[in-house]
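Example 5.3 — 2-amino-4-hydroxy-6-hydroxymethyldihydropteridine pyrophosphokinase
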Amino acid sequence: MDEPCSVACVAYIALGANLGDPLATVKAAIAALNQLPQSSLVAASSLYRTAPMGLTHQPDFINAVVEMITVLPAPTFLAELFAIEARFGRQRGVPNAPRTLDLDLLLYGDLVRCDAQLTLPHPRLHERAFVLAPLAEIAPLLIIPCLGAVSDLLAQCAEQQIERLH
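Solution (predicted structure tokens):
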């Protein structure tokens, strides 16, 4: 990117899918993220299989986390994520319901924000091994604002079962 480093932000995005062909969907979504304007894909975690949380009578999820660099403002970046979800047939409604694709903005630099439009860091990332394991894989030394080290948070979720696929 030609923009000065002072205007670029590191963003971490969690991906999840459990409808259709979730493995293919997550891989295609990573490719779609790599095409976002004024943004670059830095790293992608392995893929993980996890049991659903909340509404448990549904297929397992395929999850991953990516690291990106972007100069888009956080709300614009989030809108781009929602547009990708829509292209993959995502319909918002019941929380924890099955979905074709879920893209969650976990972190946007060290921004801490809580309003009707956006909450950063993601409000439940510290409770979810299916987010923390892939995040720790690509950013093992990451300190999450207001929450602490990703490795410490992952250790607190040790009872949650996840399977690393590749």
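Remark. Confidence is low (pLDDT under 50) at residues 1-5.
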